Amino acid sequence: MKTPFSSEFLEISFFEEHKILQIKWFSISEQMTDEDFKNQILHEKNAVKTYKPKTIFADATNFAFPISPILQEWHNDFLFPTFIEERLKKIGILVSNDIVVQMSVEQLINDDKNITFITQYFNDKNKAFEWLLV
Question: I need a surface site. Which of 13, 68, 117, 119 has the fewest CB within 10 A?
Answer without folding.
Answer: 68
